[in-house]
Please model this.
Amino acid sequence: MNTKLVQSDEKGIQQAVELLQQGEVVAIPTETVYGLAANALDGKAVEKIFAAKGRPQDNPLIVHIDSMEMWKTLVDPLPPEAVQLAQAFWPGPLTIILRHKGTAAPEVCGGLDTIAVRMPSHPIAKEIIAKSGLPLAAPSANLSGSPSPTEAKYVWQDMQGRIPLVVDGGSCQVGVESTVVSLAEESLVLLRPGYITKEQMEQILGKPVKVAGAVTRMLEQGETALSPGMKYKHYAPNAEITILKGDADQYRNYINQHKEEGVAALCFEEDCRDLSVPVVVYGKEKDFDSQARELFSALRHLDEMGAKKVYARCPEVHGVALAVYNRLLRAAAFRVVEL
Ligand code: TXA
Ligand code: MG
Model:
């Protein structure tokens, strides 16, 4: 298949809308990461997403909407807490899971009785949803298992020849995928941390939000994944990543002692000096937003450099940094060394 890369101007958006209405898959920018979009009401169109990504069929997709009315066509009833969260954080990087009413294609929900929905804030994503008039199922626009793309060139690398169109909307502002919260059970559960934090949601709701155990550790044997995505390999570059837990001095000493051909450092801007191996930076130590914005492109960059073994400085585990830690932990296949 011939893949076109177009600007997000009127013409590019029009092409995207037409292809989506014809049941094709189009990569579009969102504020979190690029998404691989198709009409969520059309099972054949949705199947093409799974094929393009090489994604396991039981891993459900997030549906992107542009209005509360569109949400109501997918979910019934809307519990008050869901509405409160939507009013506080939509449009934006929050995905809400509720029981569905069977209107979306079953392929979207991976056989579950629930559906994940979010209203993105990116102007191009909003315009494409509005002009097509369709709820759009869209996972991250990477090959299954690879780092999520935050720039059109990375979508192109993964999707060239697999989909007809990529819409270039520049770099994604947030850089990690949306927060995923489930309201389908009695208590609220955070399934995937993101830019909207547990603390922010608790403040709006005035009650605790549980964090699924698998957010910060490997699924245990026999443990059911609350979110099917938790079972699968994620965000992994070719290089083998190890997270080093310790302060800047311990980090520097460890790397300088383990220096060899193919070793690289993945660290904060402040750590760069006095490291004797090639360095890729992902944000500033105290600026969690910058870490989120830069992490996925840093992982891609390490592969472009040909790094074989990467030692990563460990992020913190609260606020937006929890999302960064959650992604990096998976990129590192849970390899962590305490210094
Ligand atoms: O920011 C984002 O959310 C991006 C952009 C494109 O919007 N999309 C994204 O989609 O990250 P994806 O497919 O890469 O991640 C969706 C996650 C998966 O881990 C999946 O298992 C989980 O959400 N999920 C979707 N529907 C679910 C459901 N009904 N129950 C539990 N988990 C669900
Ligand atoms: Mg993904």
Remarks:
- The first helix runs from residue 10 to 21.
- Residues 256 and 276 are 6 Å apart (CA to CA).
